[in-house]
Design goal:
Ferritin, 10 helices, 63% helix
Length: 275
């Protein structure tokens, strides 16, 4: 669970090094506490940033607990929403998405150097908010008689992180602007199903998640636009090329156009969705 720099010794008081240490943690409670502490330290100017530092992971990342067992996406349990176990399976799946999202945001902080200070501040904020989402879902799962790890899960989100680990533009295009944006589309029907099943608390949690995820996708759009401008690339054509190159999942409706618009997708890109 350590990191090293190629040019200077490990410095846990440096933001990107600390993010890598958080990412490598396998204990869930420890990771959540470490992310909260790091965000607090950053907000109070108690931790430095060295954007030029070259870092490398000394241990397997991301750190994750022994459970849940990771299986192919089609092998994840799907149960009826009419049962408590079925609702728990859904809440567990959402919690796993948020756990992965914590790791993805931490990875965005440590892995990519030479970005503006605001880039690192943005993704640290995302990590802290994803940690809150996970905590809310895990607590609610406990009220249903289950815990994180009681169901199996898949690793699709991190798989895309692996595919894009060498190119920040591809990472931003295909994680926040593609996979996380799909969450904007999925949230309203999921919320409706949970509310219809009588799980009003879960529906309220999804309201919080959707509100924050609009901001997270907006951060993705902001930095995607910035990177395209830096590289002299046309954003829409570049996105299409990256999606094809990295075999991103095709975008399928129904789309939450209002949320996507609020998250910074332009009208030309929204029109391409055919919604």
């Amino acid at each position: 669970m350590s990191a090293h720099a190629t040019e200077s010794p490990e410095n846990p008081d440096e933001l990107r090094s600390a993010a890598l240490l958080c990412l490598a943690m396998s204990d869930v409670s420890g990771k959540l506490a470490a992310v909260a502490a790091l965000a607090q330290a950053w907000s109070e100017d108690r931790i430095a940033l060295d954007a030029a530092r070259t870092l490398a992971a000394d241990s397997a990342i991301p750190g994750r607990p022994a459970r849940p067992e990771l299986v192919p996406p089609l092998s994840v349990e799907r149960r009826s929403m009419r049962t408590a176990a079925g609702r728990a399976a859904l809440i567990h799946a959402l919690a796993h998405i948020e756990f992965n999202a914590i790791n993805l945001a931490l990875d965005a902080v440590w892995r990519f150097g030479d970005m503006p200070v605001d880039y690192y501040a943005d993704w640290l904020q995302v990590a802290a908010e994803e940690a809150l989402h996970f905590s809310l879902l895990a607590q609610h799962l406990h009220t249903l008689g289950y815990a994180y790890g009681d169901f199996n899960a898949h690793n699709s989100l991190w798989d895309m992180a692996e595919k894009t680990r060498h190119d920040i533009l591809a990472r931003i295009a295909l994680v926040p602007r593609t996979l996380e944006a799909r969450g904007l589309d999925a949230s309203p029907p999921l919320r409706a199903k949970l509310a219809q099943a009588g799980d009003i608390e879960a529906a309220k949690i999804l309201d919080i998640i959707l509100r924050d995820e609009i901001g997270h996708v907006a951060i993705g759009n902001r930095w995607y636009g910035w990177l395209c401008q830096q590289r002299g690339l046309e954003p829409i054509a570049t996105y299409a090329a990256l999606a094809l190159q990295h075999k991103a999942p095709p975008l399928r409706g129904p789309f939450n156009i209002d949320a996507r618009r609020a998250a910074g997708f332009g009208e030309a890109e929204l029109a391409l969705l055919g919604a």
